[in-house]
Amino acid sequence: MDSLLLLLGFICMIIGILGSFLPVLPGISLSWLGLLLLYLTKAVPMNYWVLGITLAITIIISILNYIIPAKGTKRFGGSSYGIWGTNIGLIVGIFAPIPFGFIIGPFAGAFIGELLYDYKDHNRALKAATGSFIGFLASSFINFMLCIIFFGLFLTIVWQNRAGLF
Questions:
Q1: pLDDT tens-digit readout, 6-54
Q2: How far is CA 77 from the centre of its chain?
Q3: Alpha carbon distance 60, 137 (integer Å)
Q4: Which of 45, 94, 107, 133 is least enclosed by beta carbons within 10 angstroms?
Q5: How far is Cα 158 from Cα 106, in angstroms, rounded to an integer?
Q6: Between the CA of residue 8 and those of 11, 37, 57, 90, 160, what are the distances in Å?
């Protein structure tokens, strides 16, 4: 049973790292689930502090994933139309059958939203869409770094308890 939990935890970690770039997958949540599965093995003693702190970080970052692109839009002069466009574009981009739709969607959504707000000011719409794109990149980078940290923690725990796991 420990081998199965270890394998599932490792798979969650790998998919979590991939999910840090693909919004379809909840990257940080899957990485945390990988840590939880590792702690559920009999060979690894339960550490509620590590699980609690990493869960709190996971929840905070998951919430920020929706706020950061919208704040990027606002910071670059976007209106509420651009913020709504960013969020709608992100959802549409995830499900659109185009390459890199999850990147193009928020940008296009913010641009279209700003044009709906003021169709004459193309420069402001482009600036707000750029802010959305930068916010998305910042959010993805934070997710990726946190998933890598969780993966390093996973590997460290596995290494420390290798005698009981293998």
A1: 999 999 999 999 888 776 678 899 999 999 999 999 999 999 999 999 9
A2: 24
A3: 17
A4: 45
A5: 38
A6: 5, 7, 22, 29, 19
Give dist(CA 75, CA 84) in Å, integer. 14
Instruction: Write the DSSP string, 97-145.
Output: SSTTHHHHHHHHHHHHHHHHH-TT-HHHHHHHHHHHHHHHHHHHHHHHH
How many other CB atoms sit within 10 Å of the CB of residue 102? Answer: 22
The Cα 133–Cα 4 span in angstroms is 39
Read off φ and ψ for residue 5, nearest 5 degrees: -65, -40
What's the rounded mean pLDDT across residues 85-103? 79
CA distance 32 to 51: 8
